[in-house]
Design brief:
Blueprint: E1 3-5, E2 10-18, E3 24-30, E4 49-60, E5 65-77, E6 82-86, H1 93-101, E7 108-114, E8 117-118, H2 121-127, E9 128-131, H3 143-155, H4 161-174, H5 190-202, E10 208-212, H6 220-235, E11 239-243, H7 249-254, E12 257-262, E13 265-271, H8 275-281, H9 292-301, H10 308-314, H11 333-356, H12 372-381, H13 386-393, H14 436-453, H15 455-475, H16 486-509, H17 511-524, H18 530-540, H19 542-559, H20 566-593, H21 596-612, H22 628-633, H23 635-648, H24 667-673, H25 681-709
Parallel strand pairs: 6-11, 6-12, 9-10, 10-11
Antiparallel strand pairs: 1-2, 2-3, 4-5, 4-7, 7-8, 12-13
The structure holds adenosine-5'-triphosphate.
């Protein structure tokens, strides 16, 4: 008999035995899943993280009141261990994770050490990967393609194609994604997406991996698979840190190390196995059959009384570490409670005094140069117990809590295999896995692949340009050489600008807002530089827009009987193409600077003044002097002027006249009427090119700013 539990891919081995009476007993024992190791991955060093007195605050509200989120927490996260950061909602788990990853840096004080050295953010970024909560994947890629993109970007040209294939193959097999390699990412289940997110980051074997709520949205079986995967990554010598809400007892047991936060302070740090015994020493008895993870959250929420202060003090706000095989720090509970009560009453008075002065709040920031110990006074004034533990630890407050923070000895899991890892931290690693040109090329190919996959939009654009082209051609049919229909022809020229402007602009407004979450993740995890990404994205749509524009212009130019002269057609087309590209750039700027709602509203509205001052509605002379500067900014004006000059300037012969009198028979009359007699086509083109580059650079700067401000 063989029972296969597919959900966990683990065979169950039945052991059949017979008792004395001859009846059959079947014991089903779950087999140990064969731990697969990733052998093809590049070797990386094991990394331990120690953080001390981490303080983080944000400004809030109109009065810019400071809100303290992390209150001088300390902790240690070791390689080879799977660490869970737990705590009630709003305790500061994600904030701590964001700070440890280096994703958040402003407003933070304290020290973070990597293998005993102060963290160098740039160096650290090369060693770590941050897998965010929402998987942030490109839905239009097959699993295999997504892996190839990651491998090409992260492993660069130093590894051959075969080596990359081996790495991809091995990771996909290890993570159980091999059979889904030809599945589109958008069709993967939640658990598979999570595994793919991990697989993508595993390509360059980061020794530290951070996960924000890796089990959120997964069923219990997928949760188990996910945590089992994290555990196996840790067992291979990596430092795996994840935030998790409230794991089941089964999941909880799989973690090696637990770091629990409550209201921005550490209430427990140590082995998961030691949690219950440790809490017991503080008179917090976890009932039998009660999930220890739930119990510690309940305690942190205050459901079992006011224990948070005691816990923070006992664990010295993360400076103590409760480790299996090590004696507990000594805690004099009675003295601790007395000290708390005494200080509570003293502090209500202190708090009142401080608050009545009007400038001290619980969320007071640390002043420059001050340290956490100084700040404790303020924290203290608002019932923060952290200082108590510090003063107590030196034996003056009646509570004896040995601080073993300087103790670098640690008990690693016995089953950790660090054979895959080099032990030295590489000092001169490149910032990215491959050159910026390669990054540009890979991202460009990926973007073109998206366009190929999502042909609906391309067909729509093609259809719109051809349909509108024929519609305009029919409406203004054969008017281009008719002296009596010059005003209508000018209307046609203006409509061209309008149509090309809107079709180009609306497409690009959404480019960045839709890509932003993936961009944030990939850029933060050092897949590529923003410059390479930006160039690839902005270049990728230019050929399509050019083709659509050429098609549209050819149709309308021919049907409306504009001058049948190749050079005039070239000039006309040139001005139209530039208008398209400039309008694309406007869309990119708006998309980079604003969110979707504001952008979609503002981009067309912002274009209205440029349309008004294009020279079609009011000639330059008729515009009030103080408003004339707007015409210089109006790219529509340059486009309109360019097409008008291509049509009527350059010594065009008189138009045909089928009526008694045609006022605009002479093209010069039209140019005089438009105030374009002295206008220069070359200047119009130069102005459009300058505006194009100005907008493209602005879009890049806005995007960079948005990327920074999102962190
Ligand atoms: N930029 C910010 N401005 C104001 N408050 C913030 C900001 N970022 C975080 N906070 C506050 O800090 C506290 C901790 O937030 P954080 O997201 O770290 O909590 P969490 O423990 O991860 O919660 P959850 O489990 O619900 O995700 C919350 O009260 C949150 O409102």
């Amino acid at each position: 008999m063989k029972i296969v539990d597919e959900s966990e891919s683990c065979e169950m081995n039945p052991i059949v035995s017979y008792d004395r009476k001859g009846s059959v007993k079947v014991n089903i024992q779950p087999c140990q899943q064969q731990a697969r190791t990733l052998t093809h991955l590049p070797k990386r060093p094991p990394v331990d993280i120690v953080f001390e007195d981490l303080y983080y605050s944000v400004s809030e509200g109109r009065k810019k009141k400071t809100k303290t989120i992390l209150k001088c927490v300390s902790g240690r996260l070791y390689s080879g261990e799977l660490t869970a950061i737990m705590g009630p909602s709003g305790a500061g788990k994600s904030t701590l994770l964001n700070i440890l990853t280096g994703y958040r840096t402003s407003g933070m004080k304290g020290s973070i050490k990597i293998n005993g050295e102060e963290r160098n953010l740039s160096q650290f970024a090369k060693l770590s990967a941050y897998i965010m909560q929402d998987n942030q994947l490109h839905g239009n890629l097959y699993v295999e393609e997504a892996m190839h993109v990651a491998a090409n970007l992260k492993l660069g040209n130093e590894h051959s194609k075969e080596e990359k294939m081996d790495v991809i193959q091995e990771i996909l097999e290890t993570l159980g994604l091999q059979e889904h390699r030809r599945t589109l990412t958008c069709n993967l289940s939640g658990g598979q997406k999570k595994r793919l997110s991990i697989a993508l980051e595993l390509v360059n074997n980061p020794p530290i991996m951070f996960f924000d709520e890796p089990t959120s949205g997964l069923d219990s079986s997928s949760c188990f698979q996910c945590v089992a995967l994290l555990k196996s990554l840790a067992t291979e010598g990596r430092t795996i840190i994840c935030t998790i809400h409230q794991p089941s007892a089964r999941l909880f047991e799989m973690f090696d190390h637990l770091y629990t936060l409550a209201d921005g302070q550490c209430v427990y740090q140590g082995s998961t196995a030691q949690l219950v015994p440790w809490l017991k020493t503080l008179n917090l008895v976890c009932p039998s059959y009660h999930n220890p993870a739930s119990f510690v959250i309940e305690v942190s929420c205050g459901e079992h009384g006011e224990n948070v202060k005691n816990l923070v003090a006992a664990i010295n706000n993360g400076k103590n570490d409760i480790r299996t095989g090590k004696p507990f720090p000594k805690v004099d509970l009675k003295a601790l409670n007395n000290a708390n009560m005494e200080k509570q009453s003293n502090l209500s008075q202190e708090t009142d005094n401080l608050l009545s002065n009007g400038d001290a709040t619980s969320d007071q920031p640390l002043s420059e140069g001050s340290n956490c110990t100084n700040n404790m006074l303020l924290a203290y004034a608002t019932n923060d117990i952290a200082k108590d533990s510090q003063s107590n630890s030196d034996g003056k407050g009646g509570v004896v809590i040995p601080v073993d923070f300087s103790d670098n000895e640690k008990s690693k899991c016995d089953n950790v295999s660090t054979s895959l890892l080099d032990t030295s931290l590489p000092l001169s690693q490149k910032r990215y896995g491959t050159s910026e040109f390669n990054q540009f090329w890979i991202v460009l190919k990926r973007t073109l692949l998206f366009s190929r996959r999502d042909w609906t939009l391309m067909y729509l654009r093609l259809f719109a340009h051809i349909l509108v082209g024929f519609l305009i051609g029919a409406l203004y049919y054969d008017i281009g050489n008719d002296g009596a229909k010059v005003l209508s022809n000018l209307g046609f020229l203006f409509f061209n600008m309008l149509f090309l402007m809107y079709t180009s602009m609306t497409i690009t407004i959404l480019s960045f807002p839709l890509e932003m979450p993936v961009l944030i993740k990939e850029n933060f995890n050092r897949w590529y530089s923003l410059r390479s990404y930006y160039l690839a994205i902005t270049v990728s749509d230019i050929p399509f827009q050019a083709i659509f524009c050429v098609l549209y212009v050819s149709i309308v130019y021919y049907l409306t009987s504009q001058p049948q002269d190749l050079s005039r057609f070239g000039m006309f087309l040139g001005a139209c193409l530039l208008i398209s590209f400039v309008a694309q750039s406007v869309g990119l700027v708006v998309g980079a600077a604003m969110n979707v709602q504001n952008g979609v509203f503002l981009a067309p509205v912002m274009s209205v003044p440029f349309l008004l001052f294009s020279g079609f509605f009011v000639s330059f002379d008729a515009i009030p002097v103080y408003l004339r500067w707007i015409t210089y900014l109006s790219y529509i004006r340059y486009g309109f002027e360019g097409t008008a000059l291509a049509t009527y300037s350059f010594n065009r012969t008189n138009l045909k006249c089928f009526q008694v009198y045609c006022h605009f028979k002479d093209p010069n009359t039209t140019l005089e009427e438009l105030d374009m007699k002295t206008a220069s086509f070359e200047l119009d083109i130069i102005a459009l090119i300058v505006i194009f580059f100005f907008l493209r650079i602005s879009a890049y700067l806005f995007l960079r700013w948005k990327l920074m401000s999102s962190r």
